[in-house]
């Protein structure tokens, strides 16, 4: 074998090695694309965020608390030892299917023409299970002249009163809970007669506004 043949073989080996190296580089560039990898990661992150948002929306729709409902369904006047009181039957409904309601620091009073005519009365805490109705019977002292002064001798006078309830409210479902202030104002039209005692008529359904 001559010197030229050895030189040619050496060149061929170098050429083959160079081709292999170029092929490896080309294969590496084909299999690893930084921009494509970033796009895949971004797509995965977006999908995860969308799943989290959808899950949160579904949970919010399922467990979103609805305000309780209130109405006054009865009123009674009592006079004992010179003290005149009015007792109201206040009914509240928890419309939530998955969220219970707990009331605390409840205070109720009676107002007439935007003026309180009874002292504030503290009520005990109240736990309200889902889809249930609870009645409260607050007895509120009122000035005797209020009943006698507004009533008619011959018939009932229509008197517009407001039963006001304030306090703290807690929505609770499992480990989740939310604390809020609550204000309830129930406008009720009652029929008063001078010297009225006992149950007095309600001249129409009450209208209650609930703010939380």
TrEMBL record:
It holds the Pfam family LEA_2. GO terms for biological process: defense response to other organism. It is a single-pass membrane protein. Residues 92-179 form the Late embryogenesis abundant protein LEA-2 subgroup domain. The chain crosses the membrane at residues 41-63. This is NDR1/HIN1-like protein 12. InterPro entries: LEA_2, NDR1-like. One of its GO terms (cellular component) is plasmodesma. It comes from Artemisia annua. It is found in: Membrane.
């Amino acid at each position: 074998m001559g010197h030229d043949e050895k030189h040619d073989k050496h060149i061929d080996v170098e050429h083959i090695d160079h081709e292999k190296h170029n092929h490896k580089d080309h294969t590496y560039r084909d299999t690893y694309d930084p921009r494509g990898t970033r796009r895949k990661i971004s797509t995965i992150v977006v999908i995860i965020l969308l799943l989290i948002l959808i899950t949160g929306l579904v949970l919010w729709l399922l467990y979103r608390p609805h305000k309780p409902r209130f109405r006054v369904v009865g009123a009674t006047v009592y006079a004992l030892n010179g003290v005149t009181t009015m007792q109201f039957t206040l009914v509240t409904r928890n419309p939530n299917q998955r969220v219970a309601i707990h009331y605390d620091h409840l205070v109720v009073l009676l107002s007439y023409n935007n003026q309180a005519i009874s002292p504030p009365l503290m009520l005990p805490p109240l736990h309200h299970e889902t889809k249930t109705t609870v009645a409260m019977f607050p007895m509120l002292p009122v000035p005797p002249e209020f009943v006698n002064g507004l009533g008619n001798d011959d018939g009932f006078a229509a008197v517009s009163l407001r039963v006001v309830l304030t306090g703290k409210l807690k929505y609770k479902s499992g480990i989740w809970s939310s604390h809020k202030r609550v204000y309830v104002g129930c406008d009720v039209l009652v029929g008063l007669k001078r010297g009225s005692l006992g149950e007095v008529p309600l001249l129409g359904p009450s209208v209650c506004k609930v703010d939380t």
